[in-house]
Amino acid sequence: MARPALPEPGVRRAGPTPARVPHGAVGEAGILDAALAVMAEHGFHGTSVRDIAVRAGVSPAALYHHFASKQQVLATIMERGIKALLERTHAALADAGDEPADRLRALVEVHVLFHLQDQRGTLLGTSELRALEEPVRSRHLAKRHQQQRLFDGVITQGVDLGVFTTPIPLEASRAIVVMCTGVANWFSPKGRMSRAEVVRRYQRLALDMVGAHDA
Predict the structure, then answer these.
(1) What is the dihedral of CA 168, 180, 82, 104, to 10 degrees?
(2) How far is CA 141 from its chain centroid?
(3) What is the DSSP string of the chain?
(4) Could you check whether the bond before residue 18 is cis, i.e. omega within 30 degrees of 0?
């Protein structure tokens, strides 16, 4: 019987093909959900790739099939969040008409509801922005500034038209955005206010802050 050929010097014989890690059952969305849950509990630096994989019910190798690193997981969560917010905001403004008060109401509604629907994502985005590495961090901040400028534009337009009377429109705009983002810190579905009621009250507050006539 012929003897098996020996490998040439300097050439490593290929080993057995490693078993394929099953990843289709959970997928990218499941891994992101698990990462969001674990990072919300322990923070970015307190969370390991293994922690995320265990929460998702996959092996670390399966996680690496979708993401190159824990940093990429965080970046994906935050980038998808701000992209969705910008898209919803632009759509709301397109439907709001030309009246500055109506446009401000639309902005507040989108911003409040978005941060109530994804409270963990909001809190993670606020606390772990510092963990984003460059150049992702700068790109992400630029998109946040785009969202702020949408509020700035509506409020300054209202002031120019004499509909809003605040002497400090940009400061009022920043305060409104912070206020609307902050609902994620305190809102509870078991509380005394519904999401719709929070929206109505914050719309009222926003119009008061810009000094809206006949709001």
Answers:
(1) -60
(2) 12
(3) -PPPPPPPTT-PPP-PPPPPPP-TTTHHHHHHHHHHHHHHHH-STT--HHHHHHHHTS-HHHHHHH-SSHHHHHHHHHHHHHHHHHHHHHHHHHHH-S-HHHHHHHHHHHHHHHHHHTHHHHHHHHHSGGGPPTTHHHHHHHHHHHHHHHHHHHHHHHHHTTSB--S-HHHHHHHHHHHHHTHHHH--TTSSS-HHHHHHHHHHHHHHHTTBTT-
(4) no
Print pLDDT tens along the chain (215 aa): 444 444 433 333 333 333 333 444 568 999 999 999 999 899 999 999 999 999 999 999 999 999 999 999 999 999 999 999 999 999 999 999 999 999 999 999 999 999 999 888 888 988 899 999 999 999 999 999 999 999 999 999 999 999 999 999 999 999 999 999 999 999 999 999 999 999 999 999 999 999 998 65
- Using the Cα atoms of residue 17, residue 23, residue 24 and residue 29 in order, give the sign of their dihedral: negative
For residue 77, give both structure tokens: 């969560």
Question: Rounded to two decimals, what is the model's pTM?
Answer: 0.82
What number of other Cβ atoms are within 10 A of residue 200's Cβ?
A: 16
Let me know if 193 is exposed, middle or buried by CB neighbors in 10 A (0-12, 13-18, 19+): middle
Supply φ then ψ for residue 164, to 5 degrees.
Answer: -110, 145
